[in-house]
Design a protein that fits this description.
The protein has 253 residues and is mainly beta. It is built from five helices and 17 strands. The strands form four sheets. Strands 8-15-14-12-9-16-17 form a seven-stranded mixed beta barrel. It has a three-stranded mixed β-sheet with strand order 10-11-13. It has a two-stranded antiparallel sheet with strand order 4-7.
Length: 253
């Protein structure tokens, strides 16, 4: 296979990314209950269309596979969402995300226990660790068991990012935030979604081009550092889309 390299200029430094070596940090979707799941979402279903004598499954005698897929982007797997997730206005991910390649930093953080039994990522976890000239931050929480690939998060009070830390990241220039948890906010917070509001600055100074991606999985074999990030979505006029998230290692050229 031929090597296809992209040269990325950051300030005055040149970096190279081998575009034939993507690192996929999204979680595959499959039919049934063997998927990561949150918010008590129903399992993904992938079923053949049946109309009269027609069946959309070649293993059941059909000429082609022709199937209906039913899922909930927020609850069934890796997804990317826009400010439409919390807005009264009809923002959609297809309208908001118009660029798809970004310079990103991957960092690993162990959430800390606080007095009420919550585990949080605080401002102190990020202070002094964010690189200059990056547009996206990819967060791998620790410990990082492979069980994240099919964990059932509903009702678990999973870790989250404190809203003051979100404000810090926005001020540091982060426009695309990716994490391996179901939400940047507390699972049960009476609908406040303080982190989401802080990130999108809704409703006062809306950052409509900013996105949040949740339920990724970054294997331990992938080192912290700087990467080229590619966010792929479906052209879906909704607040969120299932997404495929790719990293490409950046090396100084």
């Amino acid at each position: 296979m031929n090597s296809i390299k992209a040269i990325i200029v950051i300030d005055t430094a040149n970096y190279a990314a081998d575009m034939t070596q993507p690192i996929d940090i999204s979680i595959p979707l499959r039919a049934g209950e063997n998927n990561v799941n949150a918010w008590w979402a129903k399992p993904v279903t992938i079923e053949p269309v049946v109309m009269g004598d027609f069946i959309g499954d070649v293993n059941q005698g059909g000429a082609v596979n022709f199937k209906d897929i039913k899922l909930n982007p927020h609850g069934n797997g890796t997804h990317t969402e826009c400010v439409g997730h919390i807005a009264k206005e009809n923002y959609t991910i297809n309208q908001c995300l118009r660029k798809f390649v970004f310079v990103a930093q991957l960092i690993s953080i162990e959430p800390q226990l606080i007095v009420n039994g919550d585990y949080i990522l605080s401002k102190e976890n990020f202070d002094g660790r964010i690189m200059n000239n990056i547009d996206a931050l990819v967060i791998r929480t620790l410990p990082n068991e492979e069980g994240k690939l099919n964990r059932q998060y509903s009702g678990s009070n999973f870790p989250y990012i404190h809203h003051e830390a979100i404000t810090y990241l926005v001020e540091a220039g982060i426009n695309h935030l990716l994490i391996d948890l179901p939400s940047i906010d507390r699972e049960q917070d009476d609908g406040q979604l303080l982190g989401h509001h802080a990130f999108w600055q809704y409703p006062n100074k809306v950052r409509a081009a900013a996105t949040i991606t949740e339920l990724i999985y970054v294997p331990d074999s992938i080192e912290d550092g700087m990467y080229l990030l590619n966010i792929q979505i479906t052209s879906l006029e909704s607040d969120a889309s299932p997404s495929k998230i790719l990293l490409y290692k950046l090396n100084q050229a």
